Amino acid sequence: MRYREGGRLDTSHVQDRRRGGGLGGGRGLAVGGGGLGLVGVLVVVLFQVLGGGGSSAALGALAGLAEGETADNSALEQSCDETGDANDSVECAVVADIDSIQDYWSQALGAQYVPTDTIYFSGQVSTGCGGATSGSGPFYCPADQKVYIDLSFFDTLRSQFGAAGGAFPNAYVLAHEYGHHVQNLLGTNRQVDPRESGAASGSVRLELQADCYAGTWAHHAETVPDASGAPLIEEITQDDVDRALDTAGRIGDDFIQENLGGGTVDQDTFTHGSSEQRQRWFLTGYETGDPAQCDTFATDDLG
Ligand SMILES: [Zn+2]
After folding, report:
1. How far is the CA of 263 from the centre of ligand 1 (A)?
2. Which of 138, 156, 182, 233 has the smallest set of CB atoms within 10 Å of its CB?
């Protein structure tokens, strides 16, 4: 995958709340302080696997720490002013991903789609859903309708999950989170009890639908125009798709439980779906390009 050279990159949908700028020092996964209702690519699972619980205590401890943080986009605007910068830097690539994803949903949903910002943070952050740490992985907070990401997560995916990585699988992670934003705008998430778990639970259906929505964006990514009228993304190859499927497979509940948790797979605690299911639903979206095919709530066959 390549980003188009020569256009202007719009950083207005990113709020840079990292301290000291830059990517920070690759913190590994720690027990995340998940907040109420956060939906991430893997947040709830990690929380359970790594012995989380008592999230309210974590919330309390973090609530004061992160207060007063403000966004400062000046460095980001300088380093990511052209679309081609996305080919050289992860922080610029994610800016381009966010623009492409939201261009797609604005086209697909029309006025129903309301664009929203992604917060870049390092280490910890306060959100409308409470405090959170990098250990939660990227997530969407329905209460303030923002996506949150510590970009060091992409390093973690490679170093701890063994993912192949790359620009396209990174974009898939962002597109998954914006899938949660679409669910919030459409009200889909409100029919799900976030505390529920299990292979056929509403939580799993919601997560697999977000994977499918990520796939529908990917299907259209090379054609959806940005504000200047040209697509931001060019040349999605089979290798890119394979890498996205590799990432999807490494953030499935069974993979995480087997390789990063206690080693035992327990379907009753699934919240995001198995590796195979996550790959299947991303592919469903990618191959059809049709969000209507992502109705994971209407099927008995989740894969
Ligand atoms: Zn999710």
Report:
1. 22
2. 156
